[in-house]
Amino acid sequence: MSSPKPAEARRRSTGTGTTSTGYALFTTGIGRCGIVWNTAGIVGVQLPETTVSATRRRIVERHSSAASADPPPFVRKAVDSISRHLTGDLSDFSEIRLDMGGVTPFRRRVYEEARLVPAGTTVSYGELAVRVGRPDAARAVGQALGHNPFAIVVPCHRVLAAGGKIGGFSADGGTDTKLRILGIEGAVLTVADTPPTTQRTIAFDDRRAVAHLKSADPALADLMASIGPFVMELKTSKTTFAALSEAIVYQQLSPKAASTIYGRFCDLFGGPRAAPSSKSLLGIPEDELRCAGLSRAKVRAIRDLAERSLAGEVPTLKEAQSMPDEVVIERLTAVLGVGRWTAEMFLMFHLGRPDILPLGDCGLRRGFAMAFAKGRMPEPRQVERRGERWRPYRSVASWYLWRAAEAALL
Q1: Judgement on whether residues 226 and 362 belong to the same structural domain of the protein
Q2: Is 156 a catalytic residue?
Q3: What is the predicted pLDDT for the residue at 321?
Q4: In DSSP terms, which residues pair with 27 in a beta bridge?
Q5: Pair (180, 116) in one structural domain
Q6: Is there a contact between 241 and 278 (Cβ–Cβ < 8 Å)?
Q7: Of 162, 249, 304, 360, whose CB neighbour count within 10 A is largest?
Q8: What is the spatial distance between Cα 329 and Cα 306, in angstroms, rounded to a whole number?
Q9: What are residue 37's DSSP bridge partners?
Q10: Both 25 and 110 in a single domain?
Q11: Model confidence pLDDT, tens digit, residues 70-105
């Protein structure tokens, strides 16, 4: 059998000419996704499987005529929107062109109606059935969403079972993946929405993050193996004010001293470890804040935080969920006493953002020195350069570097 001619080979590699369907893999906050297209539009979006090869294999199984190709402009635009969305920079997918020629008229109505459900909200299968004019077809709606070829763009993860239960999800990871995506979007779920054993954890797939880092950086992989599983969990705070006021109290103090002062600070709001509020804070005399152990500088900083919070200048937790990382940093660092490091810790440990690399953190740089620089403290730009290979999971790499720094002190 003769080899294809050069022009023929080019047509196969670009998804044009003799090959009308192309596919490509791309990186997101939950792992490597896939996208499939033809000249009419997007024909499929594949969520990550356990491995990249498994994701590619699933694409080929579902789209046997598809060939790996360089995405055309309209596909690159869709890829960018999906990637940003799955790292918390929520996108509107209404302009992404889908080719629904291969789906039934009923499923098309279901998918079109599902696209109208906004990020951060959920509906039930029954509600969606009513919206498509078939109130008796909740089961059929569920089956249609179970065969949804346009994951994320047609947001089947926003559709729950009756009674607020989370319902099924056909992607790898099942309901855990569904919950992660809903968490990224800032959806507020009731107790009935989540399994009883579900804890408040990071909103991205830590298994895929660990696998990506091990593949991208063998030296980091050795460090990760020596430290063990990734077990970072989010901190719980009722408001952005509560989270940042605690951060301000803890600045430049030992953990023990900071914990004592923060306990006294919370007592001023009505009881042991009561949740601080911006409105109440402004009614507390300065001398009482000073008696709790706050320095004059910290009193000024927390008052500024309270005033800006009441004025709407500080985003709420829900508002912050839908903001890009740099926008959150810009808004928070406008507050007196809140620097970039504090904002980065907020993004990582309160919002669960997957791609934060706090270059100004001395502990992280000590861990980097142990792992990559034979004990010599690196410059931030050195950490930043190596960190490029860890995207989009630099938060996970940071966590391992902190653990390395702690181990070096033992």
Answers
A1: yes
A2: yes
A3: 85
A4: 32
A5: yes
A6: yes
A7: 249
A8: 17
A9: 22, 42
A10: no
A11: 999 999 999 999 999 988 888 889 899 999 998 999
